[in-house]
From TrEMBL:
It comes from the Bacteria. InterPro entries: DUF6056. Keywords: Membrane, Transmembrane, Transmembrane helix. The chain crosses the membrane at residues 9-27, 77-95, 107-124, 136-152, 159-177, 183-198, 205-224, 264-280, 287-310, 316-334, 341-359. Pfam families: DUF6056 (PF19528). The keyword Membrane applies. This is DUF6056 family protein. The keyword Oxidoreductase does not apply.
Amino acid sequence: MKIINSKRTFLFTLIGVYIVFFLLNYLTPLIADDFAYIYKTSSFTSIFHDEYLQYLHQNGRSIAHIMARFFLLMPKMIFNLVNPIIFLGIVYFIYKMSNHNRIKYNSIRFFLIVISIFLFVPKFGETLLWETGSFNYLWTFLIMVSFIYIYHKKIISNEIINIPILTMFVFGIFAGWCNENTSAGTLLLIIGYIVIETKVNRRAIANWMISGLLGEILGFIVMMNSPGNKIRSGWFVRSSWSVPKKFFYGLADVSNALAKNADILIILTVISIIFCIFLYRTKYNYILGIMYLLVGAATCYSLSISPAGFNWGRSYFGGIMFIIIAFIVCFPDFKEKNFSIITPVFSTILLSLTIYTFFNFTTGLVDIYESYGQINQRYSFIISEKKKGNVHPEVSDFELHPKTEYPAYSPALSHIDSDENYKYNKYTASYFGVKTVRTLPLKEWNEKYRD
């Protein structure tokens, strides 16, 4: 155990995860909305104005989209280098919140967090690798989990927090202005931590806790009251339904989505919480496990009243991440008193998850590589035709049907099609500096260009 939890093993794991994540980002070209945000952002100096227009006409997630606009104006390699750091930042905060025994280099726990995210997050490629998707989900989750960690550090770890009230208020605004259902889940968690402080710790609530909570509420209200959100919700048939009707039809569908895609995670989380309560409970770990599980479920079930619907996809990201935290918080360190029972059970779980991750990820890696090849083939052809003086290039339709959710490419995303006037065709044409671009069926394209 000393070798596994040594400084060298911990650093090796850390560096290994960074390298793997960097390579995955490298194999993920710009696609879909990446071109849209580049097209809609005039320059670095116009970012806030351009985002203000989007706030008015399309979407209220201004924090995510400001970051997206900024990085999309820079070379893709910069994002490739920074995105793994964001991922590791999230892993770090979960690690700090769950390392109850204060093991200095808890490599097992760190590794468990990584493989749990790799295994269980919905639409891995679209939420963690795709540039626009990463800003909307991965990067904003880092903001929210770091905000939560400040409360955790004071209330659970009993560490002194000296943070100005105004700073916490502004931080709260950012956390509340990130993502509709996940920011709502963050709000519930902050309330939960404050309840723990008053009812379990029996201490007075610090002023910065209140200011952070008020900031979170304000940021959430500003995001949800975006005029663009109201316009965007009108795109969906469900927007005309009453709230009870949405909830009634959505409830079963969310349950079905979770049962099909998150059943293993939920079962393992419940098992961990039960073992925790009866065998190695501390003052807080089982309470946190229950709290994060319930908030994660509430975050997912809030989608039942969403006008956009409730099918399994990126919107489940925050809820599933909260459930992963519940699982990790209650997972033992194999140093408990009842180790004779705990060790074989949870060693089996850890080993099974590791093997399961290997099988899933190797299949996913093939999907990522194939999507990288097909997408780059398209882009290379546009560039080569432009050099020949053809400013109206035609590319083949995608012939890609991924077996996993690991690649960022998805047929569900908005890509260029056969209509050169379609907005994504225009965005892509603008990016590559040609007048128009459109797709042809693969057979027709081969006959026209390959021969």
